[in-house]
């Protein structure tokens, strides 16, 4: 058993663990691509051998269907590893930059050095994917890592801990299990990089703690991701995509569509297509969605009460139930729920929903829909469905979001060529693929000069007329 997991003196032991990783990070600074690739390959091999255990852990934690575990927990991790293995040599290679005229005679390169020690704090909603995903980026960049998974998914967190103990020495990668107190102690340490995935509220705490040591941070946060459905969208296609993107993982997805803005002429079309899609995906035999083996459950009683409270609050303030609303506390089941006639006074429009409830509002002009989105904090993702290219680019130009998807939703998470992440309240920094590698790397700019020569030789004091003439022409021409 790892000493840092004892209860007697966790602070001392965590510090010792950190100090040991610090020493390893100095050795790993010079690790080659093939050494890093070997570390990644061990993870793939472990996953292959323990795939059923991963599925079982997720099933125990919140009834996550096996197919969804394979698709949204395992596949993104193995794909991320394969992508890194394929590209790591290229990413690590120092990049030459062109020389600006005033720097003539010098050469410039960007070196990618590992930041060093890293801390990864992960959430419960994709507890395998969102813990191992950042670890792949840390290992690709050559960093050590201490991982603090969520306490709300104990089976998956324990499995991750076993996996890391099987594959790494504690001075390389280690898992520290625990709740807020453990995170708080970890956050006091001078990590070179902190990668946090979770709520904006805790993100602020993490950033504040990081500022004490000036540790760099990646904050993958949440928020209310809107869907805009323009008049000319293909409503059958859009409804199917939105239903899947919203109700996969029982709506407990950071990039799930949080609310819909649909053109007022098309609300009924959208609603009827969404009902058809819900039936087709989750109730093909007309036994009720509760019987579907493909619908996960709410993670715990606290979140169950929060979500049923959101529905009650909306209905008590005049919202209409267009679909769903049933729930069962014993199994923590909440039926996919569509609400119309919602207003900003309702909780459902004030906080990130993070569950299977979808409010639908109408708009009269695209300008008004855009203004509504812009009146709220910048979202993690924005989804636009429509076929008019002018409206598409207007929406992209006039809104700000971490990511945007046209005519689909959620799918961008799987595109490893794209930076993934939020903007301001929905996140700081990006992850996935090269962007994840960059998050854990210091881009060191290196300038090489010729011996005996210097581009500012003529500009040294005492500043004569010639120097002043050169400085004026520099300002004028460059
Ligand atoms: P959370 O912020 O409550 O917890 C995340 C992690 O922080 C957990 O490991 C938890 O133990 C730890 N933590 C909690 N309170 C803390 C504190 N006071 N100090 C230090 N650490 C603390 O988030 P959650 O409920 O696990 O996850 C849901 C949130 O995460 C949602 O807002 C969702 O949008 C967001 N999320 C974002 C992404 C993304 O990639 N951007 C992905 C998944 C989830």
Q: Which compounds are bound in this model?
A: nicotinamide-adenine-dinucleotide
Discrete helix count: 15
Q: Report the sheet-strand fraction.
A: 15-25%
Q: Give the beta-strand count.
A: 18
| Widest β-sheet, arrangement of strands | 10-13-14-9-8-15-16
| Gap from first CA to last CA | 62 Å
**Domain module count:** 2
Give the uncertain stretches in residue-range form. 1-11
Assigned CATH architecture of the largest domain:
3-Layer(aba) Sandwich
Question: Which whole number gives the mean pLDDT?
Answer: 95
Assign the structural class, choosing from mainly alpha, mainly beta, alpha/beta, alpha+beta, or little secondary structure.
Answer: alpha/beta
Radius of gyration: 25 Å
Question: What share of residues is helical?
Answer: 40-55%
- Write out the CATH superfamily name of the largest domain: Aldehyde Dehydrogenase, Chain A, domain 1
Shape: globular
Domain Aldehyde dehydrogenase: 26-444
Protein name: Aldehyde dehydrogenase
InterPro entries: Ald_DH/histidinol_DH (IPR016161), Ald_DH_C (IPR016163), Ald_DH_CS_CYS (IPR016160), Ald_DH_CS_GLU (IPR029510), Ald_DH_N (IPR016162), Aldehyde_DH_dom (IPR015590), Aldehyde_DH_NAD(P) (IPR012394)
Pfam family, one: Aldedh
């Amino acid at each position: 058993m790892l000493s840092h997991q004892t209860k007697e003196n966790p602070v001392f032991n965590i510090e010792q663990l950190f100090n040991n990783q610090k020493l390893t990070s100095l050795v790993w600074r010079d690790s080659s691509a093939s050494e890093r690739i070997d570390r990644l390959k061990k993870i793939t091999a472990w996953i292959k051998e323990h795939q059923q255990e991963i599925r079982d852990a997720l099933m125990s934690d919140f009834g996550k269907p096996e197919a969804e575990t394979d698709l949204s927990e395992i596949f993104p991790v193995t794909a991320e590893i394969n992508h890194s293995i394929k590209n790591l040599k290229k990413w690590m290679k120092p990049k030459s930059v062109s020389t600006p005229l005033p720097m003539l005679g010098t050469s410039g390169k960007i070196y990618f050095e590992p930041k060093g020690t890293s801390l990864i704090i992960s959430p419960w909603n994709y507890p395998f994917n969102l813990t191992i995903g950042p670890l792949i980026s840390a290992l690709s960049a050559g960093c050590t890592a201490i991982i603090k998974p969520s306490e709300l998914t104990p089976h998956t967190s324990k499995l991750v801990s076993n996996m890391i103990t099987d594959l790494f020495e504690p001075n390389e990668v280690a898992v520290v299990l625990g709740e807020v107190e453990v995170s708080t102690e970890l956050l006091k340490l001078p990590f070179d990089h902190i990668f946090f995935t979770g709520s904006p509220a805790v993100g602020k705490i993490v950033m504040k703690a990081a500022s004490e040591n000036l540790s760099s941070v990646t904050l993958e946060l949440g928020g209310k991701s809107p869907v805009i459905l323009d008049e000319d969208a293909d409503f059958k296609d859009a409804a199917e995509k939105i239903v899947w993107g919203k109700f996969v993982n029982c709506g407990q997805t950071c990039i799930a569509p949080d609310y819909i803005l649909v053109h007022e002429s098309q609300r009924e079309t959208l609603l009827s297509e969404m009902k058809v899609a819900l039936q087709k995906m989750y109730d093909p035999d007309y036994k009720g969605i509760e019987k579907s083996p493909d619908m996960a459950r709410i993670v715990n009683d606290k979140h169950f009460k929060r979500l049923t409270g959101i529905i009650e609050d909306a209905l008590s303030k005049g919202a209409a139930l267009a679909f769903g609303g049933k729930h069962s506390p014993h199994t923590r089941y909440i039926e996919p729920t569509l609400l119309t006639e919602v207003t900003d006074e309702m909780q459902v429009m004030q906080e990130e929903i993070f569950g299977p409830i979808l409010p639908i509002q109408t708009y009269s002009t695209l300008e008004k829909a855009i203004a509504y989105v812009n009146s709220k904090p910048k979202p993690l993702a924005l989804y636009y469905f429509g076929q008019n290219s002018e409206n598409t680019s207007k929406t992209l130009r006039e809104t700000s979001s971490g990511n945007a998807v046209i005519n689909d939703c959620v799918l961008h998470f799987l595109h490893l060529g794209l930076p993934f992440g939020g903007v301001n309240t929905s996140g700081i920094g990006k992850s996935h693929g090269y962007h994840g590698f960059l998050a854990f790397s210091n881009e060191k700019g290196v300038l090489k000069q010729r011996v005996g020569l210097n581009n500012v030789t003529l500009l040294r004091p005492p500043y004569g007329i010639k120097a002043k003439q050169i400085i004026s022409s520099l300002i004028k021409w460059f």
